[in-house]
Amino acid sequence: MSDPVAAKSGFLCMYMSNHPDTLVSYVRHFGKVNDNVISAEMTAIDTKGMSLAYKTKGSGSNKIDIRILFEPPLLGYEEVKPRLLGMKVDAEEAMGMTRAPKVTTFELPGQVLLTAAMVGFLVYTTFTPSPDSPNYSPIFAPGYSLRSVLPSWVLPSSWAFMVAVHLLEALYTLSLARKHDMDFSIGVLHVVTTFVFGFPIITNLRKRIQAARIDSIMKGQ
């Protein structure tokens, strides 16, 4: 099966020749080149990555070839522009060339329902009363039956794992809140909901940040 991006490699290389500063940022950030890069050009691109040739202050007229892989690979030609724009912003932010976009809103994605159901089931199984309790009801029978057959370490370990993972995710969200200059209330909402619901909050936040980055670039073109 032919590569849809490689088929238009010539056009894309010609187009990117008008953006030499972007190509230099790719080389330095994604290629992890610390030398003084003075120029760069795209020589080929496909769904798996792009090939660049660059010069440094010390290389004279000699060009150095480098291959930068796309992670994950592109699914089609329509993904080229948003991916290259996203990589441009990632590179320029990492090198301090641009400011990270400010996040001013909060969204609760629908995916939190799955996490809420899992956490709710863990709470239900852990705290369901035994049949001799005055608070017992037939609704607690499945939870009590499951808890009775589980090894004693399963529920405590599940709680420890969940709290540890969600705490790390909340700390990561806190770093994003500081990086993207969130207002206190917006930042607290993101951090607290990440601790409760976990990864869906981070995924949604990163998507909105990426959209803001690309929107900023498009307005600047």
How does this model look, in words?
The chain crosses the membrane at residues 108-127, 184-202. Keywords: Membrane, Transmembrane, Transmembrane helix. It holds the Pfam family TMEM254. This is DUF2470 domain-containing protein. The chain has 221 residues and is mainly alpha-helical. The chain has 2 domains: 6-94, Split barrel-like (Alpha-Beta Barrel), CATH 3.20.180.10; 112-220, no CATH class. It has 8 helices and 3 strands; from the N terminus they run ααβββαααααα. It has helices at residues 9-16, 20-29, 80-94, 112-127, 141-149, 154-179, 184-197, 199-220, and strands spanning 37-45, 49-56, 64-69. Strands 1-2-3 form a 3-stranded antiparallel beta sheet. Strand 1 and strand 2 (49-56) form a beta hairpin. The two termini are 35 Å apart. The model has no long low-confidence stretch (mean pLDDT 90).
